[in-house]
Amino acid sequence: MERHVVHCDLDTFFVSVERLLNSSLSGKPVLIGGGSDRGVVASCSYEARRFGVHSAMPMRLALRLCPEAVVVRGDHDLYSRYSGIVTEIIEEITPVVEKASIDEHYLDITGMDRYFGCWKWTQELRQRIINETGLPISFGLSVNKTVSKIATGEAKPCGEREVQGGAERPFLAPLSIRKIPMVGEKSYTLLRNMGIHRIGTVQRMEAPTMRRVLGENGVAIWRKANGLDDAPVVPFREQKSMSKETTFQQDTIDVDMLRRVLAGMVDALAFELRREKKLTGCVTLKIRYSNFDTHTQQLRIPYTNSDRTLTAKVGELFKKLYSRRMLIRLIGVRFSHLIHGAYQVDLFNDTLEEVSLMQAMDRIRLRYGTEAIVKGICLPDGMPAKPTKGGRRAAQRP
Ligand SMILES: [Mg+2]
């Protein structure tokens, strides 16, 4: 059966939310970022992009390129709230929804055509989101996720685009190979060096040729170039969450030690999030007492993968949940409601230095393992950094 998959993406989401609250920002170049000029651009308006500004660029450089830009300090909670409102509207009427990032969703609406016609349904949903939130959003509709995502890109800003079943290849052929979601800087350069600019050229190649040049990745690109993609739309409840637990050899009420163990687990999980380029929107703390009574508490949080934010949130939960001074046998943390996203979401509070420190620590972990580097907060006071078997362990005081 032919599938019907919608992709939708809010246009310059952070900027649009700021404009809702302050209409004087409309039509102006707007940069969203941290408070200090050592910060990074988290998002910018189309007007600013015309000056060559893009996200993840140092704020100072962006202001040199576009001195008249208005700088707005990003508000994490606010954007997560609006993101949640959009998700709610979509989930109300859609059978299967995958929240792909803070401003992106995939919808599987296969079967809707029998009653409504998928295109009409998609247009109505888009109007409804615009009317109810005031936020501009673009939609793509096709038989799979890849083609719909590319269609959304072509529909921007604030438009909609349908690619009918069977029309995938001609739709993709004239577009740049850069439009294929998985073509990164490296593959792009490689393909360009082979003289390949347009997706149509990849369509005319054989899959084994692409394999010789780019390995398995090449075959995956070739499939996408030909409009082939059977990846399912995966809702939250079917997605994997990430969790860690520690069972103590001896039941304990040592709160300092418990906090250190928690901080260590949060750090390791946050690193896993960043490695997989994901953000979490919900943390759960689990405590099992010596009598096997188990208590869990959940907290919805603004999407993040920052150690600092997550350690604070889990610390809050711990304070709430651990009110009885009882011996603890096990403690665990889970991150769920995972969506795709990178550092950018957290750049409002962090300076360039803090972001590069976190990235440097992640590079060490990628090379030497998660245990290779530990923050001072995870070690008992005065404890010297201890080498682990075969690894190096450096204590890092934040
Ligand atoms: Mg967007």
Report on the structure:
With 398 residues, the chain is an alpha+beta fold. Helix 4 runs antiparallel to helix 5 and helix 11 runs antiparallel to helix 12. It folds into 3 domains: 66 residues, MutS, DNA mismatch repair protein, domain I (3-Layer(aba) Sandwich); 133 residues, DNA polymerase, domain 1 (Orthogonal Bundle); 157 residues, DNA polymerase, Y-family, little finger domain (Dna Ligase, domain 1, 2-Layer Sandwich), CATH 3.30.1490.100. The radius of gyration is 23 Å and the shape is globular. The chain contains 13 helices and 15 strands. It has a 5-stranded mixed sheet. Strands 9, 10, 11, 12 and 13 form a 5-stranded antiparallel sheet that branches. The C terminus is likely disordered. Magnesium ion binds next to strand 1.
Provide a compact summary of the structure.
This protein is of the alpha+beta class. The protein has 3 domains: 13-78, 3-Layer(aba) Sandwich (MutS, DNA mismatch repair protein, domain I); 93-225, 5' to 3' exonuclease, C-terminal subdomain (DNA polymerase, domain 1), CATH 1.10.150.20; 240-396, 2-Layer Sandwich (Dna Ligase, domain 1), CATH 3.30.1490.100.
Q: Give the bound compounds.
A: magnesium ion
Helix content: 25-40%
Given the helix and strand composition, which structural class is it?
Answer: alpha+beta
Regions with pLDDT < 50 over 5+ consecutive residues?
A: 382-398
**End-to-end CA span:** 55 Å
CATH topology of the largest domain: Dna Ligase, domain 1
Global outline:
globular
Q: Please state the average pLDDT score.
A: 87
Number of helices: 13
Largest sheet: 5 strands, mixed
Rg (C-alpha, Å):
23 Å
H and E string: EHEEHHEHEEHEHEHHHHEHEEHEEHEE
**Could you give the order of strands across the largest sheet?**
5-6-1-7-8
Number of domains: 3
CATH superfamily of the largest domain: DNA polymerase, Y-family, little finger domain
